[in-house]
Design a protein that fits this description.
globular; 11 helices; mainly alpha
Length: 238
């Protein structure tokens, strides 16, 4: 409920919160299995909250970002055994934390999007690279949206579309790997109920936010995400 509540408020951070919490008292594979169906269902809700037509329109508008991210993700997944994870956790965590800290300190960084094709290609490539390597592809996209002052409804919708595609890939991958099986699937399905309850509560709070408040809470969650990535870098190094 906590993880999906945060997702309902700012659109992301559900996997980070769920895995950090569940893996503290469950085996990692079981925690991953718990995440699969709630991620899939909540992202369907998030992407379709304003209707199918709005979701399709958003997907079309950001199709380059989405396509490049998926293609890059497929290639970078092959590097898992080549590059040291602590280095990449730190490479992503430091700029995410720095960006969030600057924004919260009153020094917001904003991009002038003069060439959408170039920016979407670059952001998609960065997001896909980190997503393929260790499953974290949200922060680059969220930073891009926050920096270009994308309206909160569009930001939430795009995150829902992108994360839905990622959740579908994750579900298929874990069905093949055996993480999702006859024993863990009922548990994952049961987690959908509290996840949807938390998401609904998050939506109610987010609807009360204006654009400035939405951006501020997005920066807060990005800061926590950056800190968590640096923590994982430290753990991987140790």
């Amino acid at each position: 409920m906590l993880a999906s509540f945060v997702k309902g408020v700012v659109g992301f951070a559900m996997p980070m919160i769920m895995l950090s919490g569940l893996a503290s008292f469950l085996p990692v594979e079981t925690a991953m299995a718990c995440l699969v169906l709630p991620m899939l269902v909540t992202n369907v809700s998030q992407s379709l909250r304003e209707g199918l037509a709005a979701a399709v329109e958003t997907a079309r508008g950001y199709r380059r970002l989405i396509i490049v991210a998926l293609v890059t993700l497929a290639f970078s997944a092959q590097l898992v055994r080549v590059l040291p994870p602590q280095v990449l956790f730190a490479i992503l965590g430091l700029p995410v934390l720095a960006y969030a800290a600057a924004g919260l300190a009153g020094l917001p960084l904003r991009f002038r999007i003069r060439n959408r094709i170039l920016w979407q290609t670059a952001v998609g490539a960065v997001a896909g690279f980190f997503g393929g390597f260790f499953g974290v592809w949200g922060p680059p996209i969220v930073i891009y949206l926050a920096s270009s002052d994308v309206p909160k409804a569009e930001s939430m919708r795009l995150q829902g579309v992108v994360f839905l595609l990622g959740a579908a890939m994750l579900t298929a991958a874990h069905a093949v790997s055996g993480v999702v099986n006859a024993a863990t699937l009922p548990l994952s399905a049961a987690m959908v109920v509290p996840a949807m309850a938390g998401l609904w509560l998050g939506y109610r709070l987010q609807d009360r936010f204006d654009q400035a408040a939405f951006r501020r809470w997005t920066l807060v969650m990005l800061a926590f995400t950056g800190l968590n990535l640096l923590r994982r870098a430290s753990c991987a190094a140790g």
